[in-house]
Known about the structure:
single chain, Thermophilic metalloprotease-like, eight-stranded antiparallel β-sheet, 32% strand, metallopeptidase activity, metalloprotease, protease
Amino acid sequence: MKFTHELQKAADTLVKEIMGAKPGESVVITCDTGSDMDVIDATARAAYSCGAKPVIIQTTMTKGNGKAADEELPLEPLIGALSAADIWIEMNTSWLFYSTAYEKSTLANKNMRYINLVETPADAMIRMVGGFDVQKLTPFMKEIAHLTNSGKEVRITTPNGTNVSFNIEPRHLMCCDSGDATVPGIHMMPGQINFVPNWETINGTITFDGTLTPPLGALEAPIHLTVEKGVIKQVTGTSKQASEFRDWLGSFDDPNMFRMAHVCYGLNPGAKLCGNIVEDERVWGCTEWGIGYVHPLDAPPHGIDAKSHCDGICLNSSVWVDGVQVLDTGKVVHPKLKEMLN
Length: 342
């Protein structure tokens, strides 16, 4: 086993601090044949050591994710186990997230705490779960979320060309995955604040210079989007990837695939750009933009009914909320927030 002590510390942080597992609670850990079993075993040990009751469910790795994997999954046993769990930690490589098992169990079990840690090998677990002080990161991120959601206008720039502004929409989702998953609901890997702006107000240039998934992954050169009222009007760049991305958007024959969906702040101290979008969108000081589909619950009443969705990373972001600067090329400059990190 690699990183034995460091990995166990990260697993203990996950189960005891982030999930808040209590004696007697059931902790279901789902995984598949592509998962890092060292991570799974360390997480089960952490649950057992705090008096909880760990259950490991391993399935075969499916060809697709979400509902695309339904035919390959033992749905009824999964739904039965998850519908009775106090905590569900998903560590699958082929995602159960958005599958029928996920959908039915989360609807049936309103008291469950779910966290999405898909595609998380030991080194990422150590960096992204055990590599920071949860007690410090949680209030810091909640303060940024509050500051943003209390504002009206946000402006974002990057050294490679992003210069975009938009208005906050209070009726839309503001989700702060700060490392506090102790209350029932859906939680994601710590280190991201996700919100859905007022789409009509998104105007300017958005430059992806990290990764763009799907369809490209790591970028050879920046790709620039010209956006007017939340709609992509032009895709440019010096590499062939720019035209590949433009063609990919057009291949759906769906105008909603040219709509900006959501924006995120990346704030996980241990994340690094690696080609895995779950980690990439949490790189400290980046912003991430989603394009295409948005769930109606995230942006009531209708969301965006697009045929697919993709996410792109803008590194070293500078952010202003109502003219007050929060980040400067990825570094925290807001006085109150800086003090919280010291």
